[in-house]
Amino acid sequence: MLSGPEPNASQVPGASDSRERAIRETGDGTLAATEPVAEPILPGDEGPPTPWTQAGERLAAARTYWLATTGPGGRPHIRPLIGIVVDGILQVSSSPGSRKSRNLEHNASCAVTASCEGFDMVVEGTAARVDDASLLRRAADAFQTKYGWPLSVRDGAFHAEYGAPTAGDPPYHLYALTPVTAFGFPTSGSFTPTRWRFAAGRP
């Protein structure tokens, strides 16, 4: 997609100004995702591709997500975690000392999967740390609403009295996913297997 050295997307303040992104800033300072191009995965599939509006709603409703990252030596690493979708942007939280966070600092490329209503989803892209206080507060409200997890925002990170048993002690960093390509694999006959190509992955 790009050539030449680039700043690591996981270190970009506010997660809004790195590379060519499928995330745009709106007039009120929030983040919003651009609409991807939908197409059938299988050649010759006669069914219409599933609109991203339907897929995005189901992705946001998932309770558990799996984040796949790559270590410095190329070793894959996959862990379950909770996540939210705010303004169309999938966001996850992780302790800065965890392996997945350290992997993202080294290599921002990642994938997130989830079992959603009607199909399983895979979202491939890059993850950037969010440290803007206003965006963190919006995300904290979303975590509270979805999971009942009370969070405070301080020094560009989340703080909480408790976390998941394997999350470690606070602070917790927030990462926003810039999607490049997503896939939907139906678990029923209601949807067509669909690939979504986002702006960051198109020429």
From TrEMBL:
Signal peptide: none annotated. Residues 57-164 form the Pyridoxamine 5'-phosphate oxidase N-terminal domain. One of its GO terms (molecular function) is coenzyme F420 binding. Pfam families: PNPOx_N. The keyword Oxidoreductase applies. GO terms for cellular component: cytosol. InterPro entries: F420H2_bilvrd_red/Heme_oxyg, Pyridox_Oxase_N, Split_barrel_FMN-bd. This is Pyridoxamine 5'-phosphate oxidase. Residues 17-27 have a biased composition (Basic and acidic residues). It comes from Streptosporangium carneum. Residues 1-54 are annotated as: Disordered. Keywords: Oxidoreductase.
